[in-house]
Each structure stands twice: as structure tokens, then as C-alpha cells.
Amino acid sequence: MQNLTINPQRLWDSLMETAQIGGTAKGGICRLTLTDLDKVVRDWFRGQCEALGCTVTVDQVGNMFAFKPGKRSDIEPIAIGSHLDTQPTGGKFDGVLGVLGGLEVLRTLHDLSYETNAPLMLVNWTNEEGSRFAPAMLGSGVYAGVFDRAFADSREDRQGVRFSDAIDGIGYRGDAAPGSVKFGAMFELHIEQGPILEAERKAIGVVTGVQGMRWYEVELTGREAHTGSTPMHLRANALLGAARVVEHVNRIALEHAPSAVGTVGLVEVTPNSRNVIPGHVFFTVDFRHPDDAVLDVMERKLMEAIPAVSNEIGLEPVAKKVWDSPAVKFDPDCIAAVRTGTERAGMPARDMVSGAGHDAAYIARVAPTTMIFVPCEGGLSHNEAESTTLEECAAGAQVLLNAVLEYDRRFGR
Ligand SMILES: [Zn+2]
Fold this sequence. Notes:
5-stranded antiparallel beta sheet
């Protein structure tokens, strides 16, 4: 196989050029989905793809698919995809690197007139961030059949603007039915959004899956009473119960180290007064682990701990699971292609599981999929200071190119 090399400076220039679209004073990007700025970057993206001879199709939720023919027209394309929308105080690389890294792959192949066996398809997924319209990963979710189009259209932003009006407003409602633009596999290049690669001085994360996530809401009801005149043994202090459950959440996560994490991040105490024994506490629990079977065990331990703690103190507990996002295992063949692509590029790498959700997590339900991670400084993301170097971006795009070519070899005749 020919050794093709991407152009690091051209990739970097495109990252910096598009970072001006919604660029913030602190060096980040504020480019919320389906805004006028999103239209500007979408128009730019379409123009760049068409300049390479690609045909751009838009589906009814605004997902953009740039199609580059291959030697064979009888097989589905290999897709490369991520997102161009950002958080309100987003960085320059989250999502954008995956799309522009893919663009750099297409440009490299175009320059050398290199024809892959399978067609290629570069995808910009709508509303990955979920910051203007909840939930996150909406465009890829509709594509994968997780949500329907009517659900997407009905989403409202904080100003009461509906998704349907926003997408019509910028002219990016296409004709293609969601899911009708087929591809046979997808690779997503993304920054890690965590500190592991940087700490271990690895250039590439070979992503084997996305961890499962479960959210719970817990209410403990005790009895409000005077803090001065109520003896300790006659109290039903709901906050004391919550504190003990917080300890259990921490213990449960540590019992499944190093992959498990458990967090109580939101607590509401009623009446929240310094001289009233707390009568009611509401709090959340967030558990994550790459294996659903382990999450089942963690959940069972939590659901045992809550009544046990409540019994000790005399509280009435109510606990319910409010969100369950199953663990995702990426496709072994796609992962193998990334591994080979990484070796061919001579990059130090390690396997890892994504701690955050990505478009690839939904796409994995309908097509063989995997991801490639590159480091970001301090693990910082969803922050204007998000930082990845030219060399790190280039390494990711090179491995992306290598992986796509490796995967494409199976289609040779
Ligand atoms: Zn992202």
C-alpha cells in the first residue's frame, strides 16, 4: 500500500480559519447549532467539499454528507464524521477536528488522485453538543433511529425557538430521509476530553467503546425540628442520611476501580436553614463503567445502601433510575484498522474507553464504527482554553487516513 501523508499545516490553517466563525475573545468558539454562525461554517464546509468534487447531501435534520466516489459503486461508503457545532464557551477542537481531519483526508487523496475501493463520505452531524437543543447527539440519534424526526423538530431552545424553525431559518433542512444516506462503516477522530493520553505521553487513543452511564435521583424524607431543643437520639436528619449515601457512592465506585466512577453532584436540602434539622434532601447519583454487568452490580449496591442508611436514621427513601445509557463496544474490524494505521504512522498509542458521549456511540448501533482520540492539554474541554497542538492534530488525521485506507483494503478485487 502506498504511504500517503496528510498536510499538517493545511489542516491547522483550516482549524484556525473556521475558528474565526464564532470565535471568542478568549480563543474559543461560540457556534451553537442551527444559528447564523452554524450556517456560515456549514456553507464553508459544503464549498470545500464541492471543490474536491464531492456531492453534498443534507437530510431532514440537517446532517450533511459529502460523497466522494471510489473505484466501486456497488458497495456502501466508508464514512468519517463528527460535528461543527460547539458549546457556548466551546474550544476550537471538540468535534471540529473530526470533520476537518476528515476533510484533510479527502484533500490528501484528491491531491494525489488516489482512488479508494469504496466510496468515502464525510459527515457533519447536527447538534452534537445538545447545548442549544437538548438532548445531545440529536442528529446522529435521529440517523440511527434512537429518536424520530418529529421529536427533533419539537425541541425548543431557552428562548422558545423550535428546532424545526431554526433549521428552516438557516435553510439546512434537506430532502433526504434520516438514515437513508447509507454508509458501511464510520470513523470519528476526536480530542480525548480527558487527561490520560497527555499524562502517559501517548499520541493516539485507540477507542474500544464508550462507557455506560446511569443516572439516579434520590429523595430522603426525615423530620424538620429545632436544632437546639431536639436531642440527638430523637432526630430524623435527612442530610445525615444523604451524607452517608454519598460515602457509599464513593465506596461503590472504588470497589470497581479503576474503570468505575461515581458522583453525587447535585444536592438540595430543605429547608436549608442553619437552625432547622434538614427534613428533606434531594440528590443525584451518576455511575459510569465500560461494562453494563458491572453497572448492574453497582446499581444493586446503591439500591441496598439507600434503605439501609434510611433505616439507621429513620428516614423515608425514594430512589429511581432516570437515565440508562448502555455501554457501547466498537467494531473489532474498525478498531483493528485504527491499530494498524497507528502502527504504520509509528505513533505511541494505548487502548481506551470514551468517558463522554459521541455521535459514534449512536452510529455504532447501525454501522461498524470506532473512534480515534488525540490528547488535549490538561484534559480540558467544553472550555475556551481547550488546546491541542498542530502536531497532535496532524497525528490524529494521519491515523484517520491510514485507518480508512486499511479498512478499504478489504474491498479490493
Ligand atoms: Zn464533540
